Amino acid sequence: MYDFNLFYENYVNEFETYVKKYTDGLQTRPNVLGESMRYSLLNGGKRVRPVLMLACADVLQLPKDSVLPFALALEILHTYSLVHDDLPAMDNDDFRRGKPSCHKQFGEANAILAGDGLLNEAYAICFKECFKGERQILASVYLNECAGIYGMIAGQSADLYHSDNETDVSEEELLYIYEHKTGKLLLAPIIIPCILNSNKSFVAWEEFGKLLGTLFQMTDDILDVVGSFEKLGKSIGKDANENKLTCIKLYGLEGAKIRADMCAKDCRAVLEGIDGDTQFLSDFIDYLLNRSK
To answer: Among 77, 253, 256, 262, which residue carries the largest CB count within 10 Å?
Structure first.
């Protein structure tokens, strides 16, 4: 019998087995480099992106071993972004997932190098996949675009810019930050299986991924107001304190909740037009909308 939580747990366990195999082989000199990289990569988390990629692979009936290397590369990229995001020069957060941030545990310089190391390892994994064929090359290029200066890094830059400036506080700018800082790395786990499956139904999958990324960030903004450190494992109330451009700032708390509900509804509508067993992805929408951590 289908059970969303059980499916989610199985996807996580499958990925954790794969990532553990990778970290067991991570040997560095000095040891602190590998230790700081492992500390951040294995520091729990919901594993949203690998779970999404594995779930989409199931819908498209792709073998898991075809997407697991990309799921690992994506999660490593996501982890590097968090390590750098927590640094004093960026969001200056002392905690991540209830534990000291990498720079609090190993020092700022080691955290910078840990992030650099993770970034390079992600692409090393992709380069190895490229030997398998054209689809793997296209998937690797796509992941690079999602994580780079036209993707996540552009969104992070825009986020910092609007924290320091009151100009251009508009819905257009908010959606740009959503689409790039958060959305691109949530679009990647949806589009990469699509690419590996010869781009079948690409437009529908892309629309679904974009909406899901927006929903994720909306709920993240809301949780920064109504959440708790115990559940989130990180400081709350930082968005307002740091003058972040969020849906709360633009619409207010209740307005943000209404828009999150509307975004979830749009996600479901797009998903209905995608062939295959999409029950888990449909429930995943509710999971994001109602999450408390």
So the answer is: 77
